[in-house]
Amino acid sequence: MSSPRPPMIFRPPQAPLRILLADDHGIVREGLKMMLAHAQATIGAVDEAATGEQALALLAAHGADLLVLDLGMPGVSGSGWVRALRVRHPALYIMVLTANTDERTRAAVLEAGADAFVAKTGSSQPLLAAIAALASGVARPRAAPAAYMQTPDETLTRREQQVLAMAALGATAAQIAQDLHISPFTARKHRENLMRKLGLHSTAELVAYAVRLGLPTG
Questions:
Q1: pLDDT by residue (tens digit) across 51-76?
Q2: Which of the listed ranges 66-80, 98-112, 116-130, 150-164 does the model predict with the highest average pLDDT?
Q3: Distance CA 218, CA 207 (A)
Q4: Which of 58, 54, 195, 28 is CA-nearest to residue 119?
Q5: How many degrees, rounded to 5, is the angle at CA 28 between CA 27 and CA 34?
Q6: How far, in Å, CA of 184 to CA of 11, rounded?
Q7: Strand extents, DSSP E, the chain
Q8: Rounded distance between C-alpha atoms, residue 146 and residue 124, angstroms
């Protein structure tokens, strides 16, 4: 049996940390708040969100130093959502807490700008360590990937923007090809290219991205 880890020493923060717990399961949020009690001296306020929309609204209204994010929560569309969040909130420390421990997902989320990727089956140590590092000024949120410092839509060509708008409405490759007077193969390539540029991996993520841009969807 391994020996217990030595207790972690928390330095008093210069200002209380604000934390946002974003998970659609109330029992998980309650459990996280119990964990946070061990770092109580460094925490000023703890907000809670059960959907991606609620999380964005709370961040816009109050801001946060640390976001603990469930990647499978309603309204959160994977690494593309994390990437857009990083661009919008560059000073936010993003800890993804998930039951999905797939290495491909982990790599995509970290590449998108998350600061930590933690399994729900793990211990509370990564969360408490992040709080201690933020409070002491040791930790700093990662910068957004350089390719996404501009509005993500600006990385697309004019044709790719057209394909994005039509795909968001539910148009198939054949329909896009007909309307734009291109071949179905070319239409599929444009769609593949725009999804690669934006870090999207499914039609659902594409539609969610279009919604965030204010594009009409079908």
A1: 988 998 998 889 999 999 998 889 88
A2: 66-80
A3: 9
A4: 28
A5: 90
A6: 60
A7: 17-22, 43-49, 66-70, 93-98, 116-119
A8: 32
